[in-house]
Amino acid sequence: MADEHVQALIQAELDGELSAAQEAELAKILLRDPEVRALRDALARTDRVLREMPSAEPPAGLRSRIM
Question: Each residue of 26-37: pLDDT tens digit?
Answer without folding.
Answer: 999 999 999 999
